[in-house]
Amino acid sequence: MKDKDLAEALKSIIEKELKIFSALIPKDAFKNIENNIHPKVEKIVEQSGYVKKEKYENLKRIIDNLEKRISDLEKN
User: Fold this and answer.
1) In the prediction, which pLDDT does 73 show?
2) Averaged pLDDT, 37-61
């Protein structure tokens, strides 16, 4: 799940649960809640063994570069 999708899902759940009180809560409160909750949820998700696609791709690029360097060193 992409970060944006996860954030939107959380926002949707929070909005649904707080629909009754939405008239009392300022619009920017949802954004503040999202900004406070998202890092915590992301940390929990990563502790479960999942990582963001961006992080995965960066790690994969690093690994590929290291494997190429090792291969080049073995040839010499």
Assistant:
1) 93
2) 86
